[in-house]
Design brief:
Blueprint: E1 5-9, H1 13-25, E2 29-30, E3 40-43, H2 49-56, E4 61-62, H3 64-73, E5 92-96, H4 100-108, E6 112-113, E7 123-126, H5 131-137, E8 143-145, H6 146-155, H7 161-171, H8 173-178, E9 185-188, H9 193-205, E10 209-211, E11 220-222, E12 234-236, H10 238-247
Helix pairs in contact: 9-10
């Protein structure tokens, strides 16, 4: 039988050391990074790069109980589905003004409901009309539309929240009409952190979407180095965004002069 390659996500350094020790004793191989050889991922919760990649690649995602039971029986248990990580297990979620049945669905899938924001809260789930308001009030918090929850429950699978947020910002006609940056998805690169926070606030006020990494749906890169990005995406300066904010429009035409 081939050596089973095991990875872990969401655990402390000490916990990973113990997992590695147990996996090795059972004849398996523990890898700190999720490589192409990975066959199973032990995780505390979804929402990490490892769980997202594993979900996309159909790598089994299990709870630590899988390893505990395997270790007790002195052999790996190949019935991964019995130990499948519940969809929202280990996550604190604030459902803001969504139907009670959806809140109950989160709990049924292992999520912990909170009624206000706390630093360890994974996200706030709300109707699309509330997103800009919450982004303005809680600028450092992950705000996700309830359509994401609907899709996760429908498919019984973890979906990258960013894809739902961006798609909704672009496709919702009412949202686009109300906000002048409603069709825009911004990535800020190479800007001072303090100035970036100010730019993020202007994006949110204008109804735009801010992402902290480059994604295929990005429409604008805010940068001061126009030659750095050969991508086929519009590159604009911070001054351009400030002009848009002053005029309450998405300014067309050439990039603002730096």
């Amino acid at each position: 039988m081939a050596t089973l390659v095991v990875c872990a996500s969401g655990f402390t350094t000490q916990e990973k050391a113990k997992i590695s020790e147990n996996v090795t004793e059972l004849g398996g191989k523990f890898e700190a990074d999720l490589t192409q050889a990975a066959q199973v991922l032990i995780a505390k919760h979804y929402g990490t790069l490892k769980t997202q990649t594993s979900s996309d690649k159909n790598i089994p995602i299990v709870t630590i109980k899988w390893l505990d039971d395997s270790y007790r029986k002195k052999k790996f248990n190949d019935h991964f589905m019995r130990y499948k990580l519940n969809l929202f297990a280990g996550l604190k979620i604030w459902p803001y003004r969504i139907p009670k049945e959806k809140t109950r669905a989160i709990q049924k899938k292992g999520g912990q409901i909170v009624e206000n924001f706390s630093p360890d809260c994974f996200c706030v789930i709300t109707a699309n009309k509330n997103i800009s308001y919450l982004q303005y009030c809680l600028p450092e918090t992950k705000i996700i539309p309830e359509e994401w929850l609907d899709e996760c429950l429908k498919m019984n699978k973890w979906i990258d929240p960013q894809t739902i947020v961006i798609a909704k910002s672009i496709n919702d006609d009412d949202y686009v009409q109300e906000y002048y940056l409603g069709k825009c998805v911004f990535w800020v690169d190479g800007i001072d952190p303090e100035e970036e926070r100010d730019l993020k606030e202007l994006i949110i006020i204008g109804g735009g979407t801010y992402v902290n990494k480059f994604l295929p749906r990005v429409t604008h890169i805010i940068t001061r180095d126009m030659k750095k990005h050969p991508l086929n995406v519009r590159k604009v300066s911070p001054e351009w965004l400030r002009d848009c904010s002053l005029q309450k429009i998405c300014i067309p035409g050439p990039i603002a002069i730096i």
